[in-house]
Specification:
This protein is an alpha/beta fold. Helix content is 34%, strand content 20%. It is built from eleven helices and 14 strands. It has helices spanning 10-19, 25-36, 50-59, 131-145, 165-176, 196-205, 220-226, 229-232, 235-248, 267-277, 301-313, and strands spanning 3-4, 60-61, 66-72, 78-83, 89-97, 100-104, 108-110, 125-128, 152-155, 188-192, 210-214, 253-259, 282-288, 318-320. The strands form three sheets. A ten-stranded mixed β-sheet has the order 3-4-5-6-9-10-11-12-13-14, covered by helices on one side. It has a two-stranded parallel ribbon with strand order 1-2. It has a two-stranded antiparallel ribbon with strand order 7-8. Strand 3 (66-72) and strand 4 form a beta hairpin. The protein is globular. It binds S-adenosyl-L-homocysteine. S-adenosyl-L-homocysteine binds next to strand 10 and strand 12.
């Protein structure tokens, strides 16, 4: 059966070349046709021998993702709906902010983890995205915005990237390989709800990308209420892994903290957060809750202000994430599989 060539990292592809008695330098040539020159047929790879092109066409195909819908928010954020080959759908977002243009990519069709405040998991989990489907989302936004315009890639769309570990890592390898896209590793972030084993696996790979952890509460009772994963990996277990991560990977960890009115915004919560993070090189990203159909409320400005003032007093470094794309339901936690009730969308 023919394989999707975009599921191959350069290393794996060189293995294929070897098996077929083709020189390994063809790997760079072919990747350059695929990811820089962007050809749509193997026959267009004009510096390859005809026989090589034939071998490629016999063994591989070139996939594309279909952009079905493009909505633009009044703040410039775009929500993109992609159709996959098997009639599944997935959304992603393109977020401009000052000089930055961040692509928020999806890693799964739906999500298994059922965080209370997040819409992406509401329709359940369908399947993992392949490496090619992740890369094709990126290629589609490059078509919209231009490769040089996209400054950051965040695995913060639909799904849990570390639950689709192999495909996510393959896609990252293609993105950062100078012979692939040559995207800066420091401008790629993975966000996780806290899958401890995969966090440690990631540390060992030493990719140099950034890690964000969806924390949202600094005590087990509150966190378990809103994030079922906390029952499997409570804070003590999570922080053991994060400590080990930081022994391998020296860069700081970002902790995302969605502020939900009356739930995790009191002074006591801020104090617990400061205590929990002591000794870890990190920053906190405060995210005012975006409406997502759950029985939860966004914080008032005053709640955000007093929570952040308390963190400041405690010496915790933090930023407040501006809500982007709320009017088109493209903000954090609002992306979906795209097939959900019309009432919400
Ligand atoms: N599964 C991964 C990747 C998703 S990232 C993870 O959990 O980290 C999406 C980010 O948006 C996460 O930090 C998530 O907690 C946050 N988020 C989800 N729903 C939200 C909402 N309704 N309002 C604000 N942020 C939300």
């Amino acid at each position: 059966m023919k394989q999707d060539i975009k599921n191959y990292t350069l290393k794996k592809f060189e293995g294929f070349l070897k098996e077929n008695n083709l020189p390994s330098y063809c790997g760079s040539q072919i990747f350059s046709w695929l990811y820089q020159k962007r050809v749509e047929e193997f026959d267009q790879m004009s510096n390859l021998a005809k026989k090589t092109r034939q071998i490629l066409a016999k063994n591989f195909f070139l996939s594309k993702i279909e952009l079905k819908k493009r909505e633009v928010s009044k703040d410039g954020t775009e929500k993109l709906l992609f159709a996959l080959a098997d009639n599944n759908f997935v959304e992603a977002a393109l977020i401009p902010e000052g000089r930055r243009l961040t692509f928020c990519v999806s890693s799964q069709v739906g999500c298994k983890f059922g965080c209370k405040f997040c819409f992406s998991g509401k329709g359940g989990f369908k399947r993992n995205l392949s490496c090619a489907e992740i890369i094709n989302q990126y290629l589609a936004v490059v078509d919209l915005a231009g490769a040089s315009k996209i400054t950051n890639i965040v695995f913060m769309g639909v799904g849990e990237p570390l639950d689709n570990f192999i495909n996510t890592i393959k896609a990252i390898r293609l993105l950062i390989n100078p012979k692939g896209f040559g995207f800066s590793k420091r401008r790629i972030s993975i966000s996780t709800c806290g899958l401890t084993r995969e966090i440690e696996r990631l540390a060992k790979l030493d990719l140099g990308i950034k890690l964000s952890v969806s924390l949202h509460a600094a005590d087990d009772i509150t966190r378990s209420k809103i994030m079922p994963i906390n029952k499997r990996y409570p804070l003590r277990v999570l922080f053991n892994s994060l400590n080990r991560f930081q022994q391998n990977q020296k860069q700081e960890i970002t902790f995302e903290y969605v502020l939900i009115a009356g739930l995790n915004t009191a002074r006591g919560h801020a104090l617990k957060l400061a205590r929990l993070l002591r000794g870890i090189k990190c920053k906190v990203n405060l995210i005012p809750y975006n409406e997502c159909g759950a029985d939860l409320r966004p914080p008032t400005e005053k709640e955000v202000f007093s929570f952040s003032e308390e963190l400041k007093k405690q010496g915790v470094f933090f930023t407040v994430r501006k809500p982007k794309g709320r009017d088109i339901k493209a903000a954090c936690g609002q992306l979906s599989r795209g097939t959900l009730p019309v009432s919400f969308r």
